[in-house]
Each structure stands twice: as structure tokens, then as C-alpha cells.
Amino acid sequence: SVVPKVFPNLPVLSRGCTDIVCCVLLVVAIVGYVVVGVVAWTHGDPRKVIYPTDSRGQFCGQQGTPNDLVPPARGVPGVPHSILVVTCSLLCPSPLQICVSKCPDRYMTYLTAYGNPTSLEYYRDFCTPEFKNARKAPVEVLKDKECPAMLIPSTPLARRCFPAIQAKKGVIMVGNETTYDDGRGHRRNVTELLEGAKKANVVLEARQLAMKIFEDYTVSWYWIIIGLVIAMVASLIFIVLLRFLAGIMVWVMIVMVVLVLGYGIFHCYMEYAKLKGEAGSDVSLTDLGFQTDLRVYLHLRQTWLAFLIILCVLELVIILLLIFLRKRILIAIALIKEASRAVGHVMSSLLFPLCTFFLLCLCIAYWASTAVFLSTSNEAVYKVFNESACPFSGQTCHPETFNTSNVTKLCPDAQCLFAFYGGETAYHKYLIVLQFFNVFMFFWLANFVIALGQVTLAGAFASYYWAFKKPDDMPAFPLFSAFGRALRYHTGSLAFGSLVLAIVQVIRVTLEYLDHRLKAAENKFAKFLLSCLKCCFWCLEKFIKFLNRNAYIMIAIYGTNFCTSARNAFFLLMRNIIRVAVLDKVTDFLFFLGKLLIVGSVGILAFFFFTHRIKLVQDTAPPLNYYWVPILTVIVGSYLIAHGFFSVYGMCVDTLFLCFLEDLERNDGSAEKPYFMSQNLRKLLKKTNKGQPDA
């Protein structure tokens, strides 16, 4: 008989739902997440991040407020600016923000404008809508914050006015002046305004840079796409060539390492022999002590002797490892070649990362939008401000009813002014909790999406390995079959694994936040403890990711729950720890080499093309402001494309490796339990299927 009497029936097709409790918990959490998003979208207002407000927290140009009467700025309909008078802090407890139609273009103080009708008429444009009585004493106007104490020539930026600072021959000037009147009769240097406008200048320069970069993209986008297509084709070709060149590349790498170490030994010996008899070369390292100039140590024979011994030990260790691990290296190479064949039979797997990427983008978009709406769902809070003693000072007030309340009677000089954005309702008090829940759900859902992609790919490649006649015994659509099994039966297990990882990641984020807050602290013990915790949880996260990845492979094969799969995968790998280490290092080297070749070759090609150094297409390359813009885009895009292809290939190698280990432990080559590994692997291990021809 040419067909085994008993199939192991892997991957298991007759399955049941696993980790149902976690599945229900995930559904409830998603429903709660949607509710949080709806509540945030109901209360939040992203305009608070984009549009300017006045000192009362009202948007400039907002309908239903006195600011909607502000005319449009610089001919742009409905886009008034908000002016921030920085020097008002000299007279006011907080900077005064007023909605205006245009930025001031001259120096002026309210005291000088008060006695001049023409100047006062100009000054009115930069006062609050409540400013009506021009006969009011200037001191009262400034105290009531109806007008700023002074005006400074300003330029609009991001719908706000900032001091128009410029440098002429190394001299800082604002409006062609080096000093200004602060509104209190004192002359001040314009350099005092430099700090307040520094960020504005940075933003202005960034905007100009962004415009030039955008122009570069508009003329080079199709060439960038061509470069990315080249990277995609190169990645695919590299994966196909691994079937034929994996062994050559690995052994060339090993020989190169041995030769480099051998040359290092020879060089160290020659330097050691050359220093013989030279003055000062026989001084010991202990007698010399620590020296900041490390070149001093290179003149000592003892230094080169130490290097010689270290390199000899490394060379000996590597040679011994090659002698004892040569068979495991050959197995790793054979598995890599087999993975290339598996990917060739499941070509749709190379496009599956696009599905994972799309779902991750949805998670990121929902998290980001919810975070913005939550952070902008605070309301304008008004407090009582006064200069004399008042029992109501600092209490919350309402501007609409403040003038008719008892506060104005008991405290005549009290004012109801905008203090900050906040809120005193139960919703506002628990905003930080909702933000924490938002972050936690983002990690959970993102990890779930990644887990779904891993278990889907594992199921497809396991179908290839456990097909006795490859690829005839494979299902028609292995990738879609694995995806359906994962969603139908193992949503709970995926939720379990991603939940554990999300908890660790949230703890790490919390530790990073605490570390940021404690940077200025003097407690060294707290910093040391925090650093230890960060290190421990970083290691824990790496271990959980490794364990989850292999647990998902076992789930795809056997359909068991998460804990059982994780335990079985862990002990299976521990029983073959040396094979795991060898395969891991070999695949890491090949992936590193592949990414280096693809990104490097495409990047060099892009560099020569966009810098007009290829004579055949010299006139075809577009003129650019910054040639590094498309080059960096092509390099980053090529790396992401190569990483996407190799992530699929890496999942294939890991899946086939676990299947290979299971095959060795479950089967013995008899007619009832034949080996499902490839012919090359059976030859390496000297295994045969009794009574069966090589498949």
C-alpha cells in the first residue's frame, strides 16, 4: 500500500470552541469600548485642538457668541485669528487672548492710544467685544482685561498671532525695532519676546519644509511606487532563491566568520611580536591603570596577548560547535528550503499581511480618535477672581448669572473669568480612567489582530506539512480555511493570549510614564527600582510574545485551548532546545542578509536615479527640492515590504519546525505512523517510511 493506513488527521478539522469565557469577555470589552467611543464623540470637540479660543474659552468665529461678529481675517471667510498678547502677563494673572480679524502691524500701548482718537479706533480691533466705553479710565480697562496693555507687530501662524521676529545682520528685531514699550512706561529689549515666539518660528520653518516635501512627492510619487514594486519583486525572488541558495549562504557566512577570526589571531600575534623589545611595551595592565586615551593600551604587549587569547578561544568554540552541531545546521537549512516550497504552494499567504495591516490601521484610527475626543470633552470652567479678600475667591461661577449673584454684592471687584478646561461631573472625574481603558483596549485589540494573523498562517502552513502527498493532499484554499477555523473556534484562545500580553504592555507603559515623571526626582533608590522593573517587564514581554507565537501554532494544529497549547509548545521546544537555538540564529542571519540586500540595493538604485547619476535616465528623473525625500521613502518602504514578506516566511519556518518536532515524536516510520517530513529531512535524519515510497 502506498497510502498510510492511519492518518494523523492534522491539522485537526473536528474542533470545538476553546476559551469561551475569554471570547465572551472580549465581546463585552468591545461593546464597552464602542460605548466609550460614542460617549467621547458626544462630549468631545476636536476643534479645541485645532481652533484658537479667547480668554473665556470661546472659539474665535463661533456662532452664538460675541466672537461670531469678528470679520474674516486676511480675506479668508470665517477664519479669524486669536491674538496672544504675551506681555499682558506683566499686568494680568494670565495671558490675555482676544479674537481679532487681523494681527497688529505696529507697536502701540493703550496709554498712548487713549489720548488719540485715530489710534484708539485702531486699538478697538484688539479689545474684547465688551469694550464699549472709551471714556473709561485706562487703569480700569486694563484691570478688567478689556484691552491688552500693548500691541506688538505680529504675523499669523496656525490662526494665531505671534511676534514678527526677524534677524538683520545678527540683530534681533521686531517691526524694525530692537526695543518696545511694555505699556507701563518702561522700554524693554525685543529679545525678551524671543522665547515666546521660538516655537512659532519652528512651526513656521516646519510648515515651509513640509510644503517643499509635498512638492517633491507630487513630482516623484510614481517613481517611488516603481521603487517599491522593485522591492516587492526582489523580496519574492529572494524567498524563492532560498530554496536553492540557503545552504550556500549559511556555509559561506560560517566560513567567513572562521576566516575573519583567523586573520584576527594572526594580526594580534604579529602586533605582539612587533612590540618585543620596545621601551614601555612590557608594562602590565594593572601597573598602567585606567587611561582615558585608549590608544595607550595598544602599545602594550599584554593587550595584544589578551586579544590573541580571546580570539583563539572564540575560534576554538566555533569550530567545536560546527563539529558537534553540523547535523542540526543541515536540518535548519533543510527546514528553510522546505519553508520556501511551502510559501510557493500558498502564495496567497504573502498578501495576507495586508489584511493584518488594514485591521491594525482600524485599531489605531479608533484609538486615536477616541483619545482626541476624550481629551477634548472637558468643558470651560470659570472661577471667581478678585484682588481684595473675598470668601468666594476661587469658586466656580457662571458668566451668564454672575452679575446678578450675591458675589458681586459682597465682592464688588470680583470677576467671573475663564480658568481652564475641565469639569466637575462624574464623567469628567473619570476621564483618566476612560483614557486608561482606551489604551488597554488598543493593546488588546492590536495583539488580537496580530494573533489572528499568526494562527491563520500557521494553520495554512501546517496543512502543507501534514499533507502526505504534497501538494495534492492540501485543501483547496488552505489560508481561507485556516482563517475560518481561527475565527469560528479559537477567538477565545486568541483573546486569552492577547489579553495576557496587553496587560504586560500596559504595565510597561505605566512604568515609562512613572519614569518620565521621576526624572527630576532625587530618590536614587526609586529610580533603581523602576529601572529594574522596566527591565523585568521588558524580558517578560519578549518571553510572552515567544510563547504566544508557538502556542498559536499548536492551536492551529490541534485545536486545543491556549493554556494547553502554550504548555505543550513550551515543553516541546525545551526538549529540543539546541535545535531551536540553531534554527533561530540561522533564520535570523538569512532574514538580516535578505533585508540588507533588498533595502541596500533598492536604496542605492534610488540614490543614483534621483541624484541624476544614471546617464540612461538622467533626463527622466524629476527636479527636487530635497533628493533625500523620495530616497528615504523608498528605503523605508522597501524595509517594510521586506519585513512583511519575511514575517510570513518566518512564521512558515516556525510552523514547519514545530510540525517537524511533533512528527518525530508522534511517528516512527511504520505503515500506521509514517513520517510526513520531506525526503531531504528523512535522509538527514536517516529515517525511512517502511513500505512507503519517498513522498
From TrEMBL:
Swiss-Prot/TrEMBL keywords: Antiport, Cell membrane, Glycoprotein, Membrane, Mitochondrion, Mitochondrion outer membrane, Phosphoprotein, Transmembrane, Transmembrane helix, Transport
Transmembrane segments: 20-41, 221-241, 248-266, 304-325, 346-368, 441-466, 487-507, 551-574, 586-610, 626-646
Compartments, record wording: Cell membrane; Mitochondrion outer membrane
Molecular functions (GO terms): antiporter activity
InterPro entries the record matches: Choline_transptr-like
Topology in membrane: Multi-pass membrane protein
N-terminal signal peptide: none
Known catalytic reactions: choline(out) + n H(+)(in) = choline(in) + n H(+)(out); ethanolamine(out) + n H(+)(in) = ethanolamine(in) + n H(+)(out)
Gene Ontology terms: cellular component: mitochondrial outer membrane; plasma membrane
Recorded family membership: Belongs to the CTL (choline transporter-like) family.
Function: Choline transporter.
Protein name (record): Choline transporter-like protein
Annotated source species: Vireo altiloquus (Black-whiskered vireo)
Gene name as annotated: Slc44a2
